[in-house]
Specification:
5-stranded antiparallel beta sheet, alpha+beta, 29% helix, Jelly Rolls
Length: 185
C-alpha cells in the first residue's frame, strides 16, 4: 500500500544520491504499481487543487498535478530534471530544441498511465496539452525547487519571444491558448 510520507522521505534520500533520477524513477514505478492507493493518497493530501505541492525544498519538489480537459500550455522550461507519472487521462508533450531561428519541435509523445514514468531532462523545453473531454491527473517529482526557480523561461505563444518565467503569466497564456483551441473546435 502506498504511503505518501514514506515516499517523500525516500525521495529526499534519493535526490542526494549519486544517481538521483534513476532512484526517483524506481520509487515512482513502485508508487504507480498500486495506482488506486496512490490516487487515494494524493486526493487526501490535496483535494480539489490543480497543482498541489506535496513537498518542496532546495533539492526536491513533489507535486500532484490535475490538468483540465482541453488544456494547452505555452512553451516553457524547468531547468531541472523531472519524473512524470500519469494516473488518469493523458498528456501530450511537445519537446523543443533551440535552433538559429528559435525553437522547433524535436519530439512529440503522449503520456498515459500505461506508458510508465517519463524522464524529462534538466535542459528540456516543452509544452503540454490534454485532449478535449479528458482531464489528466499525475504525480511529478523534480530535482530541485520548481516553485522557486526564478531563472526559468516561458515563450510568448504569439511572438515566440523567450520571457522570464512568471507563473501568473504562464497561466494567462495557457488560458488564452486553451480558449482559442476550444473555440476552433
Amino acid at each position: 500500500m502506498f504511503d505518501l510520507k514514506t515516499f517523500i522521505e525516500d525521495c529526499k534520500k534519493a535526490v542526494l544520491s549519486d544517481q538521483p533520477q534513476k532512484q526517483v524513477k524506481t520509487l515512482m514505478e513502485d508508487a504507480f504499481s498500486d495506482p488506486k492507493a496512490l490516487q487515494q493518497a494524493l486526493e487526501v493530501a490535496s483535494p480539489g487543487k490543480s497543482v498541489a505541492p506535496l513537498y518542496s525544498d532546495e533539492n526536491l519538489t513533489i507535486l500532484r498535478v490535475a490538468t483540465p480537459a482541453n488544456f494547452l500550455s505555452p512553451i516553457h522550461n524547468h531547468l531541472m530534471w523531472a519524473m512524470i507519472g500519469i494516473l488518469e487521462g493523458e498528456e501530450k508533450n511537445y519537446l523543443y530544441r533551440r535552433t538559429n531561428d528559435g525553437l522547433e519541435v524535436e519530439q512529440e509523445l503522449v503520456l498515459k498511465a500505461e506508458t510508465g514514468i517519463f524522464s524529462l531532462r534538466a535542459d528540456a523545453i516543452h509544452a503540454i496539452e490534454t485532449p478535449p473531454g479528458q482531464e489528466m491527473c499525475g504525480l511529478h517529482v523534480y530535482g530541485g525547487n520548481i516553485l522557486q526557480r526564478s531563472s526559468r523561461s516561458v515563450w510568448d505563444p504569439e511572438t515566440k519571444e523567450e520571457l522570464p518565467y512568471n507563473f501568473e503569466q504562464l497561466m494567462g497564456f495557457a488560458k488564452t491558448l486553451s480558449a482559442e483551441r476550444a473555440a476552433a473546435g
